[in-house]
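Continuing from the previous page...

OK, I double-checked the sequence for phosphoglycolate phosphatase against my notes and this is the correct one:
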Amino acid sequence: MSGIRALVFDLDGTLYDSEGVGRQIDASAMGHVAAVRGISPEEARLLIRETREKIAVRTGRTASLSHVCLELGIDLRELHRRFEAEIEPEPFLTRDERVVELLERLGERFDLHIYTNNNRLLSSRIMTALGVDGCFRRIFTIEDSWRPKPDRQVLEEIFREIGQEPSHCLFVGDRYDIDLRLPRELGCRVFHSRTVDELLTIETTLPSGAPMNDQTKETLDAIMRAIEIEKETFDFYTRAERKTFNPEGKRIFRWLAKTEEQHYLKLNELYQSLHEGGRWVFYGGSTITLDPAGSGEKQVGFDTDDLQALEIAMEIEKKGIAYFDDLMAKTADADGKGMLKALRDEETEHLRVITEKYNAIKG
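Thanks. Re-ran it with the corrected sequence; updated C-alpha cells here:
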C-alpha cells in the first residue's frame, strides 16, 4: 500500500466488539421509532428489520440504522438526543492494550482519524473508555453534517479537511457497504475488519506492493462484497438457531451457520492472497456435514417464525448462488473458477435442503 498517509477508522464494531453497546443502540432506536410512529417496541423492531430488507432489495446494499431511520421519516437529531440520554456504553467497554499500542504505532507513521455515524458525545465517551481518545487528529461524527455514511459529499469534505487525496487514504471498517465501498470507489484503499483480532493484523497489509490494476481492484471489490454477504448470512443463521426451540430447526440452522462461517473464512484468505500476491487459493469444499436427525425429531413441526426464517433463507441462498455465478463469469483464472464453483455448489445444496424442508412442512 504505497503512498498511504492517513488512516480513517470507523468506531463502533471496528475499534471494539460489544454486543452490549449494540443492544442498547438497537433498543433505544426501537423505542424512538415506536414513540414517533405510535406503535409498540416489538412492532418497531419488525418495522426496522423490514425496512432494512426493503432497502437492501432496492439498492443491493446493506443499510445502516441511520439510513433505515431516515427512510422511516425519523429526525436523526431527535434520535441522537435520545441516544445521548439513554445509552451508557462504559459498563460494556474495557481498555484493550493491544488496540492502544497498535494505534500508537500507526500514529507514528500515519495521520489517524475517526469517521462514525455515532454522535460526538457518545463517540467521546466510547473512546475514553477504550483508552484511545488521544490517538486521533480529527473525529468526524454524524453531527458534522447529519448525512450518515456512506455519503460522497461528506467524504469529499473529509478529504479536504484532512488535506489528503483519496489515493493516500486507507479506510478501516467492519461493514463493507457502509464503511468501505464508497471510499474504495473514490480511490481509497480499504481494510475490512469484523473483529478486534482482525484489526490487529492491519500492519501486515501496510508494506508497499505493486500498483493495483483496474481488473484486480474490481475482483477485490467483488470478493469483499462476497465476504460481507457470507458474514450477514452466518449472522442470520446463528440468530435463527438460537431463536428456535425446535431440535430439527436447530440442527439445520447450525449446519448452515457453520458452512457459511467456513465460506467467510476462506473468502478472507482469498482476499488477502489476491491483495498481496494476486494468487487464488484452493478450496476443496466444506468439511462440515449435516448432523443426522435425532430420535423422534421428524415428528416435531416448525413454528411460524421458523417457516418465515426458512423463506428468508431460500431468498438468501438464491442471491448467493446468483452472486457466485456472476463472479465466475467475470473470472478468467481457472483456479478462481474452480473455487467459486465449489462455493456456488455448496450454496445450491443449502437451497436444496432448505427448500425440501420448507415444502415438507407446508405440505
